[in-house]
Amino acid sequence: MFGLVAKWRRRADRIAELAHRLDRLAERDEQVIAETESVEAARRRGAAALHSFCVEFTKRLNAEMTRAELKLVPSEFDLKVYREDGPNLIQMSLRGRIVQVQYEAPARTVSNEYFRHPYILQGQITGFNQTLLEQDLVEEEMLFYARDGKSNGAYRWHYFEPRTYQTGLVSERYLTDLFGRLA
Questions:
Q1: If we measure between CA atoms, which residue out of 115, 80, 86 comes closest to residue 103?
Q2: What is the pTM assigned to this prediction?
Q3: pLDDT per residue over 74-100, tens digit each?
Q4: Cα–Cα distance, 2 to 183 (Å, whole number)
């Protein structure tokens, strides 16, 4: 009789242990879903911020020019057009000088495969004109929407030049220097 009771208790303990493990699994799943939703929202903010850099740069440059106009496509950020599962493109052009920004989500939710800080968006910025195309020289730098090690882990856009290992934050100055090399 005691053997049967002991066997029943072991079985009940195993069931309780399994139930506990499944509850922990559900908690982990909920955490993964919450983290994924948080990253997706941060990606949308990152896409809007990158487009905002380009809009402000275009407006400031056009305000200073009298004989030319920098074109920005798309001219406005539209969340309906933003693609979470594929590449996104922004293009600035002025008389044959073109800067293209392409970005997308990495394969993993958060990655650090190509940049030293964890990032949630990656891409490249490419600048060229006819002279550079004829010489097979196209300016290309990598872009990452990454956590900044200096500012409480906030995400910011970084550029990385793989030939020189130069890195910094995407800013008006950065875009000015890039376009300056194409002029």
A1: 86
A2: 0.82
A3: 999 998 889 988 999 999 999 888 999
A4: 91
